Amino acid sequence: MNKAGAPSGGGAGSGPTASAAAAAAQKQRALLQRLDNDISNIVDSFSVLVSVSRVNEPPVRNSQEAFLMEIRASKLVQSADSLLKLVSELKQTAIFSGFASLNENVDHRIQAFDQEAETSDKLLERIGEEAATSLKELESHYYSSVARNFVHE
Amino acid sequence: MEVERNKRMRIDVDKLPMKRLLAIDEIGNEQFPPEKSNEEQRLSAIHRIDFSLVVEKEKEKEKEEKDKELSKSKDGQQQQQPWQGLMENLRQAQHELSVILDLISTVEANDSVAVALMQRPKPLPNEALADFAVSAATKVQRLRHLGRYFKQCSKTMEQQVSKEARFYGSLIRLQQNWKVKRQRMGISEGFTFDLFDSRSLSGADSSVLTRPSPMSTIIIDQDAFGMLAIQLPQKSCRTLCLKFLGDDSSTCRIKNNTSEKNASSSGSDIAQPPSVKEILSDEDVSGCIGTTHSILRDIHRSLFEEKVFEMVNREAFNNQSSQGINVTGMRQDFLQLVIGQDSSLCLSLVLSEPEGEYKENGKDGSYNEDSSESGSSSALAPILLPTDDKNPTRSFSKPALSSKLVLSLQIYLLSIFHQETLSRAKEGHSSCGYLLAHFCMSVAHRVFSNKVLSILENLVSRVSYVELVSHPTWHSRTSSWSLRLKVPEASSVFDGGYQKQTKRSQFLTKVVIKDGQISLRGQSSATIVASFTGDATEPHSINTYTCDLEDLPMLILHQVASQVIQWLHEEALVVGMKTSRDLLCLNVDLEQGDTLSLMARVDPDDASACISWALAIPAVTDDAVNFSFYQTDSDNPGLKFLGSLSLESLYSALMDLANFCGNGAVC
C-alpha cells in the first residue's frame, strides 16, 4: 500500500528509495546544522571572552565580567565536546551505514579469499606431487642402498 | 548725562512728561497707560541707568589687587599648600563622618531618616589608577585561571580524540573481516561482533532451525587507553576432538600462547593495556588488533566445530542403521562409533584449555565425565569392547593409527563438512546426509590400509629382490601399492647372427585397496618369451583377483615366486633349454631324459626368508613323484634344499643346469 504523497509513476521500487534519499538528505542537513551551531558557539564564546577581557573602569563590573568569562569558557568547551561527539557519530555512521563501501569491501574480501583458497589448493596439489616424487625417490634410494642390501646379504 | 574722561560722550534724553496714548478702540475711546506712582517712577529711572561699565571696572581693579597680593605672598604660601589640601580632605572626611554618625545615631534612636542625596566623592587620580590596576590584576588572574582550564580541557580532549581514533580505527580494521553490530543496551550504546554463520548445516530438513550459540555474539569493550577489547567468558571455547578408543594421544587443539596470554576471566578485558607508558604506538594498536583477530578466529573455528559435531550427531541419530553407521555411545558432547570390526572412534567436544587444565580420557578406554563441559546424563553409555586377556586394562596393544593420521582424519572431517556448507550456500544442493557414512568408511579404509601396508612392508623386508612402491591416489577410500620384482639385466644370446634378448626387467604386482576390499593385479605367466625379430610385443596374462587380509601374504608370495619361475623359464628358453613350468616349479629336461625341478617354497611366517628354493630330481618309482619340502636331505636324497637365493644365484644355477641339458643349449 503506497503512502499518500508517494511518487505516482515510479512504482514500488522507487518509493522507498526516494524516502530513504530524503531521510539521508535531512540527516545530512541536521548534521551540518549541528556542526554550524557548534562552530558558531565556539567562535562567539571566544569573541565574547576577548571582548570581556578588556579592563573597564567601574570595579563593580569585574565580578560580573568574571562570571561571564567563566560561562563563555564553559560554553566553548562544551561546544568542543559536542564537536567531538559529532565526529564519533560520523565515524559510527561510516562504520554502520556505509553500505556501498561495506559491500564493496565484502566483495573484495570474497575475491581475495577465493583466490587464496585457489592458491592453497594449487599449493596442496604441488605439495602432494612433490611428496609423491620424493617418496618415489626415497624408495628407489632405499632399495638401492647398501643398508638394505647389506641386511639381506 | 555722563561725561567720561578722554572718552566719548553719551546723552540720554528722557521722554516728555506727557501722557502718551496707548490705543484707540473702535468706538473712539482713548486708552492711556496707567499712572505710575512715585516709587515706580524712581525705580524705572534707576533701571535705565547702565552700571555694567562700573562693574567691569571694579572687577578689573579687584583682579589687579589680587594678582599683586598673590605675587607678594606666593613664596610664603607654597609650603602650606600640601598641608592645606590634606587639611581640606580631612575636613571633608570629618564632615562625612559626622553625617554618618548622625545617621547611625538616628537609626539607633529608631527615627526615620530620609536620605536626600548621596554624592560619591570624586576619586583622586591615584585612586582611580589604583582601582584600574586592581581591575586589571583581577582580569589577568581570571584569564590565567581560564588559561589553565583551557589547557586541562585541551589535554583531556586530545586524550579523548586519540582514544576514539584508536578505538574506531581498530573497529574499522576489524570490520573488514568480521561483522560489527550496534547494540543498544539500555541507556548506553555498545558494539558487538556477530560470529553467527547463517549458512545452516541442518541438512535436508530445512525446518530445523539452528540456534545461534551464546558465543556467537562477542561484546566489544574499550579500555582506559581506548584500545579495543572483547569480553570473553572463561571456559567457553570448545574444540572437536577425535581419537580412537584406547589411544592416549588426543587431537584436541590447545590454545596457542598468544591467545592464552590474553585469555580473560569473565567480565574482564582481553587486551592488556600497557601498564607504564601512556602514549601507545601504532605497533601496539596493530598488535592488539592482531590479537583480537586471532581470538575471534579461534571462537569462529570453535563455533564451526560445534556445528560440525551437531551435524555428525544428527546424521548418526537419523541414519544409524541405513548407512552402516554403528553408534555405541552418545552423550551431549560425545559420540562413539564402531569403525570396521575392532576399532572404535570417539568424537567429542572439549574445552580448548591448556593441557594442565584438560582432563584426558581414562586409559582403560572409558569416558571420563569430568572431561566434558557439562555433566548431563547421556542417552547411551559408552560400550567397552572386549579386552585382551593378557592386558585386561588395555583393549588395544598398539594404536590403530598414529596421532598424525588421526589429526589428518579430523582435518578431513572438518573439510568435508566445510565443503558441504559451501556447496549448499552456493549451489543449494547437499549430499543428503551421507557425509558421516563416507567419513566412517574413509576411517575404516585408513585403518585397513594401514594394516595392509604393514603386511606388505613386512614381506618386502624379508624378500630382497622385491621393492615396495607407493602410488598415492589422493582419494580417501582408495590406496595403491606396487610390488616390483627387479630381475637382473637381460641376457644377450647370439644365435646365428641374431641377438636374442629378453626385454623384461621387472615384474609388477599391483595391490589396490578400495574401502575394505583388496585386489591384486599382476603378471603371472608369459606365452611368448622373446621375439627373434627384436621388436616383440610380449603378450602376457594379467591376473586380477581379490582376497582377504589373512590370505594376502600367501598370495603375494605366490605371485612373486611364480614371477621368478616365469623369469627363469624365459631365461632358460633364451639359452635353448627345454623347460616347462608350473606355478611354483620349473622343470628342466636333462640329457639323460631326467627332469630336474627347481621348486619355490613360500612361507609367510618365516622370519628370515619368505621364499626358499629346493632342487629335486624325482626318483623313478612306480608311485607318482612325491616329494615334500619338509623332507630332509637324508630322507630324500633326490631333494636338495637350497634356502633363500638371490636372483643372480638362481640365474647362475640355471646356467649351470644348461650344461646338463645337451640340446644345443647355449650358455
UniProtKB/TrEMBL annotation, chain A:
<dbReference type="GO" id="GO:0003712">
    <property type="term" value="F:transcription coregulator activity"/>
</dbReference>
<dbReference type="GO" id="GO:0016592">
    <property type="term" value="C:mediator complex"/>
</dbReference>
<protein>
    <submittedName>
        <fullName>Mediator of RNA polymerase II transcription subunit 22</fullName>
    </submittedName>
</protein>
<feature type="region of interest" description="Disordered">
    <location>
        <begin position="1"/>
        <end position="20"/>
    </location>
</feature>
<keyword id="KW-0804">Transcription</keyword>
<dbReference type="Pfam" id="PF06179">
    <property type="entry name" value="Med22"/>
</dbReference>
<keyword id="KW-0805">Transcription regulation</keyword>
<dbReference type="GO" id="GO:0006357">
    <property type="term" value="P:regulation of transcription by RNA polymerase II"/>
</dbReference>
<dbReference type="InterPro" id="IPR009332">
    <property type="entry name" value="Med22"/>
</dbReference>
<keyword id="KW-0539">Nucleus</keyword>
Automatic annotation (TrEMBL), chain B:
<dbReference type="GO" id="GO:0003712">
    <property type="term" value="F:transcription coregulator activity"/>
</dbReference>
<dbReference type="GO" id="GO:0070847">
    <property type="term" value="C:core mediator complex"/>
</dbReference>
<feature type="region of interest" description="Disordered">
    <location>
        <begin position="356"/>
        <end position="384"/>
    </location>
</feature>
<keyword id="KW-0804">Transcription</keyword>
<keyword id="KW-0539">Nucleus</keyword>
<dbReference type="InterPro" id="IPR019313">
    <property type="entry name" value="Mediator_Med17"/>
</dbReference>
<feature type="compositionally biased region" description="Basic and acidic residues">
    <location>
        <begin position="57"/>
        <end position="75"/>
    </location>
</feature>
<dbReference type="GO" id="GO:0016592">
    <property type="term" value="C:mediator complex"/>
</dbReference>
<feature type="region of interest" description="Disordered">
    <location>
        <begin position="57"/>
        <end position="82"/>
    </location>
</feature>
<protein>
    <submittedName>
        <fullName>Mediator of RNA polymerase II transcription subunit 17</fullName>
    </submittedName>
</protein>
<feature type="compositionally biased region" description="Low complexity">
    <location>
        <begin position="364"/>
        <end position="378"/>
    </location>
</feature>
<keyword id="KW-0805">Transcription regulation</keyword>
<comment type="similarity">
    <text>Belongs to the Mediator complex subunit 17 family.</text>
</comment>
<dbReference type="GO" id="GO:0006357">
    <property type="term" value="P:regulation of transcription by RNA polymerase II"/>
</dbReference>
